[in-house]
Write a structure and sequence with these properties.
With 414 residues, the chain is α/β, with parallel strands linked by helices. The chain contains 13 helices and 21 strands. 24% of the residues lie in helices and 21% in strands. The strands form four sheets. Strands 1, 2, 3, 4, 5, 6, 7 and 8 form an eight-stranded mixed β-sheet that branches. An eight-stranded mixed β-sheet has the order 12-11-10-9-13-18-20-21.
Length: 414
Amino acid sequence: MDWARWLRAGDHLVCSHMSSEPVALLQSLAHSAPSLPLHLMLGVPFSDAAAALPSSCDITVYGGMGSAARLALARPVHLSLLRYSLCGQVYQQGLWPADVVLLSLARDADGSLYLGASHGPALAAARRARHVIAEVNAQAPCLTGARWPDDIPLAAVVEADHAPAPLREAAPTEAEQAIARHVAALVPDGACVQVGIGALPSAMLAALSSHRHLGVHSGQYTDSMQALVDAGAADHSRKTLDAGVAVVGSVVGSNALYRTAHQHPGICLRAPGYTHDAAVIAGLDDFFSLNSAIEVDLLGNVNAETVTAQDGRWRYVGGVGGLPDFVRAAQCARRGQAVIALQSRSARQQPRIVARLSGPCTVAASDADLVCTEYGVARLRHASLEQRVRSMLAIAHPEDRDALAAAAHGLGLL
């Protein structure tokens, strides 16, 4: 790739990301691009390709998701706190610059191009870019609803042949399975669910396998979601919008899942401005947002972004993402609910129900709805301050409750 032909000093580059990360283009950029000052919006990377980019290239990510936390250990990165529902809008409105867009696309048998396994902000950025450069990945799936628009020309196209990034989920712990059972008891048949990525979200989905007529409207579509379809638990038939179809922002999982998703009429890829839009979600009756967090305080404030390192510094292992979008939107839907689930203690036996957050507040207490640990469910939406504290104490680890109660008294909360 003759990068000198396409790039100028100071250019802002925008990548498609997650399971549509343009790995071949990033590798080429790292090895043969001119040493120009560049700014790269990487979003949520799944590979380590960007680690080899020259130091003259500033990199911005959405948090510590995917391989971003690992990348941040190898080189400086900038962090964006943008809510995911707005990630396309900032380019549509010209609030963020997009000079060159790097894409990973898929090709159908008839030669038509598709966005691949993930949507994201790249399409919105491409409409304002000077150049759009694409790798066409022979192994990328073509998803319903994600055909590349004919009115956006491609300045250059390279052929690629690599498997989309696999998602390997750890087996859930006994505590996570207990949490999943509590969550499953909240979700009625016919509900429309949104679930994040990880061992606990997967456990929550597995616990729904005996439900019926579930629907999916979510940022990600994983193997665990497909398992619900295979088990007869999810058919999307009762969705009050997009009935019969799982509406998702990306497909992330095994190679088998990517093969299943290819041209599947029941899986539809949509832009973040649709998947995460409050007005859209408000039209989905019985919408259940099921997500996990790092810690929750006694009022319901949620940290889903950082852990504290031994030196006291924040280390980003998560991000804002779509969590605030889904928590708020779920409560706008008729009978909708938003669940934040977490174990009462970390793997190192540190409390995760805390008096005060140790990191940033990803979701404010004023938006809190349901918080679930292995010890039960705290219902916070309409609770008073004292009711919130007592509900949170009841789901904390038994050995942490006295210290938390003392802290609550010290703060004037009880």
